[in-house]
Amino acid sequence: MQQMYSSSTLASAKVGTQRMFPHPVLSVLLAVSWLSLSHSLALVHWLSACFIAWLVPRLLSPFLGSGSAVRWSGVPHLMGVVLWDIVKSNITVARITLGPMSKPRPAWLRVPLASDHHRVNALFASIITTTPGTVSMTIDEQSREIWVHALDCEDGPAMVADMKQRYEQPLLAIFQVNPDRAPGGQKGQA
Prior knowledge:
The chain is mostly helical. It folds into two domains: 7-64, no CATH class; 72-185, no CATH class. 56% of the residues lie in helices and 10% in strands. It has a three-stranded antiparallel sheet, with helices on one face.
């Protein structure tokens, strides 16, 4: 016999799970890390991993704040884009530094942020820094922009538009954030 659950029953189950595991991704990472560090899959290590995965996020919950809603279906695509860009950028930086190419054209870029979501902006800055040839210097929250140094920049506005399209837009979709209008309608400048 199939049981029908009301939406209130499912909602209360979700709240109960959130209370038990306020940061489920952190819990999984802690458990996997513990098992990796213990170099054993013995029952005692599984129990220890579960206990740590349950306890640590509960203790840190007041300091971590609430978790963000994540649409996991967009993560593999973004990871693929970032990994591909890292490979391409490594080759480009190697050619610039080791090859007989013309001098690099360094530039400072102001990349306007589409939202005030702190996780999206931090990940956006981290992805930019991870890609060789670009470094996020600071996130200016007042003017809502990231200052980026590019090793070789032929067209500043095009580079800014590319970063926003390839990294920021997928992050906004993953975290289900509606982009705000940038202050003053500013575009990234070189």
